[in-house]
Specification:
Number of strands: 5
Helix content: 25-40%
Distance between the termini: 35 Å
């Protein structure tokens, strides 16, 4: 006899990442359809979110612009760590970002990128830290 998927998903030994952020404060993404899919109704505050795209530069950055604009207009700083392309400043301004509240960090090596992200995440100074690591090794 096999258990149904619903029964398996309700098993207390099964850990699901969304359970950690379901009741956590969230920041609206700026896209109602996306917010409806995200646990908590937006990007979780104080948590790490990962966007995975098959290629860099196919529009994934547009998903982050509304929240980055809202954060910078509220006086918070946003840091971009090693984006794959130099951000187009007029487009950032058109998206509503306060450019004076944006820091762009260039880091060539994967270790430097991860170190920069780690430092940003340790600090409460940033409204958002957005990074493009080359790859992340999982340590056990």
């Amino acid at each position: 006899m096999s258990a149904s998927l619903d029964t398996l998903l309700e098993h207390p030994a099964l850990w699901r990442g969304e359970a950690c952020v379901r009741n956590a404060p969230a920041v609206p993404s700026g896209f109602a359809a996306l917010d409806a899919c995200l646990p908590g109704g937006g990007w979780p505050q104080g948590a790490l979110s990962e966007l995975i795209a098959p290629l860099a530069g196919i529009g994934e950055f547009a998903l982050l612009m509304p929240v980055c604009a809202r954060l910078t207009r509220a006086g918070r700083w946003v840091i971009f760590i090693a984006p794959p392309y130099i951000p187009y400043v007029p487009a950032l301004a058109d998206a509503g970002l306060e450019l004076a509240r944006l820091l762009l960090v260039r880091a060539e090596s994967g270790n430097d990128r991860l170190w920069g992200l780690e430092q940003a995440l340790k600090s409460r100074y940033w409204g958002a830290a957005i990074a493009w690591p080359l790859r992340i090794a999982v340590r056990g």
